[in-house]
Amino acid sequence: MVAQSVNIQIDKGTDFSHNFEMKNPDQSVLNLTGYSAVAKIRKFPEATKQHSFTVGITSATGIIGLSMTVGVTTQLTNGRNFYDIIITSGVGTVTKAFEGSVIVNPSASV
């Protein structure tokens, strides 16, 4: 499986959430029962400083939900950043499911 490229935007100093849908090659929903996932954001893919997303999986619908609280988004670096979502199946197969850039927008009111 090749990682799907999806670019997202986060407004600094606000709560963030976004859902990603996993599909099989025939475009049917991928059942994620037994899967786990991690997702991180970094200024550059090789940067040591990173922030983790909170990840939720809705198995039957193939939805991976990412979220960050205002406390985390406040710490993000403005401008272009990078993220990915790594999933692990119940039998231990590790796959990069999604990747892309994250534009972190400054917020004047927070």
What does this structure look like?
- Helices cover 4% and strands 49% of the residues.
- It has 110 residues and is mainly beta.
- The strands form two sheets. Strands 1, 2, 4, 5, 8 and 9 form a six-stranded mixed β-sheet that branches.
- A hairpin with an 8-residue loop joins strand 4 and strand 5.
- The protein is elongated and about 45 Å long.
- The chain starts with a strand and ends in a 5-residue tail after the last strand.
Q: Could you give the topology of this structure?
A:
Blueprint: E1 4-5, E2 8-11, E3 16-21, E4 36-42, E5 51-52, E6 54-58, E7 63-68, H1 70-73, E8 79-88, E9 94-105
Parallel strand pairs: 1-9, 2-9
Antiparallel strand pairs: 3-7, 4-5, 4-8, 6-7, 8-9
User: Alpha-carbon distance between the termini?
Assistant: 40 Å
Query: Helix content range of the residues, please?
Result: under 10%
Cα-atom radius of gyration:
14 Å
Largest sheet: 6 strands, mixed
Q: What average pLDDT do the residues reach? A: 96
**Total of domains:** 1
Q: Give the low-confidence spans.
A: none
Spell out the CATH superfamily: Immunoglobulins
Highest CATH level, the class: Mainly Beta
CATH topology: Immunoglobulin-like
The CATH architecture category equals Sandwich
Shape: elongated
Structural class: mainly beta
Task: Please tag this protein with its features.
three-stranded antiparallel sheet, single chain, 110 residues, mainly beta, elongated, six-stranded mixed sheet, 49% strand, Immunoglobulin-like
